[in-house]
Design goal:
single chain, 515 residues, mainly alpha, 20 helices
Length: 515
């Protein structure tokens, strides 16, 4: 390796090794949590089973038909997330719902890399530890891991890389990273729209063409949103509508017991933001994740679409901050907003420059261009007061995390021990042969999916042909404390057909259809 190449390689390693260590540590911790959940038979909702069926279909190069939602139900008519097809090859190699949990953990860990690297550039190695860990262990990311797999995990690294590119004024890279969001979930088209407006605002001093390109990008986001919710989702939804609209046409909220996403009578803006009071806590924790000052960044506006549909809806689970997956995309937005303000404080004054210099910045990034100028004699040292202020606001997310740690999922990791019924659960799984159709409650829902047609007990009334097997966990919360038996329940749920028990151990019951 020649001298210049050796220097470049050394600089690359020096830039990325510590962020990589932080990212790996975060990922390893989340994988430990997911595996502990798996071994403890934790099933917070039916969603993991739903996504496992969808990704299994993609692994077979089939449409994402998800019997758990209903016979013949195309999941692309529920939420628009075709980017999930990228997970098909991984599932084909490792056909298990646990695979999706690990993939989600890895995606979150990857998102730590750009944010930690930027923090390192701004504050040094202490900054990468402070900001990188506070971000990686952020409230919304912990909540997403605890809620198990959801499509929004695909958006987390995209928002992290896109947000860092925005801070570094690499406009094209920022647009490229965020564009796939429209294929992650339908409402993220609105997030892309707001990102385009933020880009236009930040580029307003660079000339008309940059602003117009950013506004065109914003238009792309809003058009993608409208086309998705007005054309694509209704075309694939059995009811011919967007299932999660706020106009009263909603059909479900994504969990067996969550209710409807339809809005109430339109309240005032003050009520939307403050009623119930848990919304204020969510806003406070979000502001703390941005170091408070991050809310002054135009990038922080990207949180508005997500907060708007959550707070305007009538599902109380959408309002909270300490659980579920709804906050995951807010965390990278807040972190990048904080870094944006810090970058403005710490960057040397940016003089007007030629079109050629602007083009160079687009390619190599503002930080590399700034280093080049420093080598040429330009001052790159911010005033000491701004550096102290940057360190102070960088501490805010870490302090917030410390104060709320006992309310977050990772605090409960030591208590996630293997369920003593694990062997009995495996026996119930083994009692249902591959290729069979089976209906079940939430406990073993995701575990039964690989190689089987799995239905949820709440949707099988729509079936033309009753399932071959019924699997019930008498201790599942799905039954609300009622005493149930797989044999009698299957026979009553499917009149004219009878079932016989073929397995019964420690609350798990498996019944096979006999007629």
């Amino acid at each position: 390796m020649k001298g210049p190449d050796r220097v470049a390689a050394t600089r690359l390693v020096a830039t990325w090794w510590l962020p990589t260590v932080i990212a790996c540590a975060v990922g390893a911790l989340y994988v430990c949590y997911s595996v502990a959940q798996w071994r403890a038979l934790v099933a917070p909702s039916w969603d993991l089973g739903i996504f496992t069926e969808a990704v299994q279909a993609y692994s077979r190069f089939e449409a994402p038909i998800v019997p758990i939602k209903g016979p013949g139900y195309n999941l692309l008519g529920d939420h628009f997330h075709p980017l999930l097809a990228l997970l098909g090859p991984i599932f084909r190699l490792f056909p298990s719902a646990l695979t999706l949990l690990v993939v989600q953990d890895v995606l979150i860990a990857v998102s730590v890399l750009p944010i930690a690297r930027l923090a390192q550039r701004l504050l040094g190695r202490g900054g990468v530890l402070l900001v990188g860990l506070a971000y990686g262990l952020g409230w919304g990311l912990q909540g997403a891991v605890a809620a198990q797999f959801h499509e929004v995990c695909l958006a987390v690294p995209l928002l992290a890389f896109g947000g860092v590119a925005f801070v570094e004024r690499r406009w094209g890279a920022s647009m490229a990273w965020l564009a796939p969001l429209v294929l992650v979930k339908e409402d993220l088209g609105l997030t892309v729209f707001v990102a385009g407006l933020a880009l236009a605002w930040r580029r307003r001093g660079e000339g008309r063409s940059g602003v117009l390109r950013s506004l065109a990008y914003a238009l792309f986001g809003i058009v993608a949103f409208v086309v998705t919710v007005k054309v694509l989702l209704p075309a694939m939804n059995p009811a011919g509508t967007w299932a999660y609209s706020l106009d009263g046409a909603a059909t479900g909220a994504g969990t067996p017991t969550a209710g409807t996403t339809a809005a109430r009578a339109i309240p005032s803006l003050w009520d939307i933001l403050t009623t119930p009071s848990v919304k204020l806590v969510t806003l406070l924790v979000l502001a703390a994740g941005a170091g408070s000052v991050g809310s002054a960044s135009p990038w922080f506006a990207l949180v508005l679409p997500t907060l708007a549909w959550r707070f305007a809806g009538s599902v109380e689970a959408y309002y909270g901050w300490d659980s579920w997956h709804y906050n995951a995309i807010l965390v990278p937005i807040a972190a990048c907003s904080l870094l944006d303000v810090m970058n403005q404080w710490l960057a040397p004054e940016r003089p007007s420059r030629s079109a050629a210099a602007s083009a160079l910045a687009e390619v190599v990034g503002e930080d590399a261009l700034r280093d080049l100028r420093a080598d040429q004699g330009a001052s790159a040292s911010p005033r000491r007061g701004w550096r102290v202020a940057a360190w102070a606001v960088a501490c805010v997310p870490a302090v917030s995390l410390a104060l709320t740690a006992s309310s977050l999922p990772l605090w409960k990791l030591p208590s996630l021990t293997e369920d003593p019924r694990m062997a009995a659960a495996q026996g119930a799984l083994d009692a249902v042969p591959e290729g069979a159709s089976v209906e079940t409650d939430t406990t073993l829902l995701a575990r039964l999916v690989p190689g089987r047609d799995v239905y949820w007990v709440g949707t099988t009334g729509q079936m033309d042909t009753p399932p071959e097997y019924v699997v019930i966990d008498t201790r599942s919360y799905a039954w609300g404390g009622m005493q149930v038996d797989a044999e009698s329940w299957g026979s009553s749920a499917h009149p004219g057909h009878s079932y016989e028990t073929v397995y019964a151990k420690q609350g798990f019951r498996v019944a096979r259809r006999t007629s």
